[in-house]
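Problem 12. The chain below contains 340 residues. Write out its predicted structure in token notation.
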Amino acid sequence: MTFRYKAYILIGVFFTNKGEIFVEKPIIEGKTPGVKLDRERITVVTLKEMKKRNALVAALSIYDFPFAQYADQAGIDVIIVGDSLGMTLLGYKNTLPVTMDQMISHASAVRRGTDRIFVVGDMPFMSYQASDEEAVRNAGRFISEAGCEAVKCEASKKLLARIKAIANAEILVMGHIGLNPHKIHEMGGYRIQGKTRESTIELLETAYALQNAGVFALLLEGVTEEVAQIISENLEIPVYGIGSGRYLDGQLLIGHDPMGMYSGFKKMPIYIKQYRVTEKDIGKTPGDVIRGKMTEYVDEVKERTFPGEKNVHKVRADEFDAIKEELIGLGLVKRANLLV
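Solution.
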């Protein structure tokens, strides 16, 4: 009896056929559709180089071990373990009740699911706002306990000292501006930002301030496409977006949204694309389907086909003319060609 072995992860059953024992089929192998293992670990250096090369980052918010494995196999570059897990996994109406202990538990599970993806832990409400010391201590927990590479903080000018304290502690920190879920009560709900001159000026000034405070990257959420492009093109750091248009250094979606696994929306946000099951998915396991849909998302981000025109928020033309004049007058725009 002879034996044949394959040097990769396998799934299936052993069976006998003319004296041979072998495995029915491999699930992960260099040529297996939808599995991208020919890449090195993503680091902050990788992300900076991708911006220089104009190579887009595909990111998802993911909260557990199996989804992290699927994301790794699909070619995701960045996972943000978001406090959005309060809504998608725990059933809260918003993200405010989520605790540090919950975040550490989920971020640790994600880290165990992938060695290659750059993992960012999301600082939950009141984990960093009270003092510099508490901000640094809790940010450090994501690094030392959960194994994350970086943390993310919803930011404003009022919180610059906290962001700077984390950066000065030599912890990588990503800023997050625009539609900030922590400010749901202050904003009166989830409102698209960058539709007025006042909002745009505030966004751009805050973005510059965060870059100067030492953030390694910026996330824009719910910002109009035109304003998001201005911010991205005028900052030296990578600028990623969720619901913020096409002209950025990368795209983020909540991992459950493209799979249709969250039903808490009163109306489906336009920035979300749901990846439907098709005939080619017949006979696949649910895990294979999820991994395949993640791969479709990665490919569409990299090929710049997602987001599309129907997935973006726009500024009214007359309002944008006023915004352009204001930004030029205040000297906030370094690349005036963007405003022609």
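Discussion. The mean pLDDT is 88. Students who got a different answer should revisit the alignment rule from Section 12.3.
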